[in-house]
Structures are given as C-alpha cells and as structure tokens.
Amino acid sequence: MSPRRSLKNLQRTLYVLGAIPVVAGAATALAGSHSIPDAGQTTPSLESELRFYSVWWIGAGLYLGWLAGRVGERTRELRVFCGLLFLGGLSRVLAILDAGWPRPIFIVLMGLELSLPLILVVWQAKATAPPRLAGEGHRAPTGR
Fold first, then answer.
1. What is the predicted pLDDT for the residue at 38?
2. Number of neighbours of residue 51 by Cβ within 10 angstroms
3. Where are the domains of the chain?
C-alpha cells in the first residue's frame, strides 16, 4: 500500500476511533453509572466523578477527530495521545489487581487500550516516512 493511501486509511481509522469516546462519554454524562454494565450501587460522589470524567472522554474523542485530519504533521500529538491511552489500559490492569476481573467487555477494552497505541504509532511512522530510494538500505556483501 502506498504511504499516501496508508495515511488516508489511518485518518479514517482515527475518525472512527474518535467517535467512540464521544458517544460513550455522552452516554455516561447523560445516564451516569446506568450506562455501565453491572455498575451496581453508586454514591452521589462516585456518580459526580464518573460524569465529570465522561466529559473528558468526549474531549479526547473530539481531539482525536481533530488530530485525524492533521496526523501526517502531528507526530508528537499522536504519540502523546497514544501514551495516555496506553496508561488508561494500565490503569485497568491496576483495577484488576485491586478489585478483580470485570465483565468481558472491559477486558476487551483493556486489550485495545494496550495494543492500539503501538499499532497507531507504527502505522503513522510508516505512512509518513520519506520514500526510500532504490537500493537504499542494502549493503554490499562483504565477501566473508
């Protein structure tokens, strides 16, 4: 696949990925803990905190949508975003160690949060790498 086409596909992927936290964050901002499977009883303080964080989730999705259109020039921004996403996945690992295993959907989300950052960073690096000249990077045999 050509770098130009790869970059276009990366942009499309980032737009889709950006929509997910916008929708999920809006659902949680409106419905609170009722938007989370098996949330159980919550306190007013926990409900307040959850809805507060959900707006940040919306912001992250909107930022990713903004970044998608500029991903060819915004390497640092994509890497920071991916680093934060990876840290979010690690926080789910801490939650497992602290409270036990969540429902399967949250394990899937954790897997995505731990793997997507690496995939996106490598994809962006390959899609924006300068073209290699024919024969570049190949060494002549040493004769040994």
1. 83
2. 17
3. 3-128
Contact 92, 113 (CB under 8 A): yes
* Per-residue pLDDT at 18 exceeds 90: yes
Helix (H) or strand (E) holding 111: helix 104-128
Contact 11, 69 (CB under 8 A): yes
Is the separation of the CB atoms in 54 and 7 below 8 Å?
no
pLDDT at 143: 60
CB 103 within 8 A of CB 75: no
Which residues 6+ apart lie within 8 Å of 27 measured at CB?
35, 54
Q: Which residues contact 59 (CB under 8 A, 6 or more apart)?
A: 25
Query: pLDDT tens across 65-105, in order?
Result: 999 999 999 999 999 999 999 999 999 999 999 999 999 99
Q: How many CB atoms lie within 10 A of CB 121?
A: 17
Model confidence at 62: pLDDT above 60: yes
Whole-number Å distance between alpha carbons of 85 and 75: 15
